[in-house]
Specification:
Strand content: under 5%
Radius of gyration: 32 Å
Shape: elongated
Number of helices: 2
Largest sheet: none
Number of strands: 0
């Protein structure tokens, strides 16, 4: 292991960290800690109203009743 090479690499990393720390301190001094990106849209499903839930419920009851009838017909 080359000790001089390791020391140089550590000093270079120290310089980068010092620059990053200085940048963060400058940002903190100005009170500008909020990210500058647009608000993200909500992902996923939209909510359903009570009326929509009732319609879906009735449709699914009919669907499962039909499936049950088809299974029983296939068995006999």
């Amino acid at each position: 292991m080359d000790l001089d090479k390791a020391i140089r690499a550590l000093y270079e990393e120290k310089r980068r960290l010092d620059a990053l720390i200085a940048s963060l301190e400058e940002t903190a001094r100005h009170g500008d800690l909020t990210p500058h990106r647009p608000a993200q849209k909500r992902r996923g499903r939209k909510g359903m109203s009570l009326e929509e839930r009732l319609i879906v419920s009735e449709r699914m009851k009919k669907y499962w009743a039909d499936r049950k009838r088809q299974e029983q017909a296939a068995r006999t």
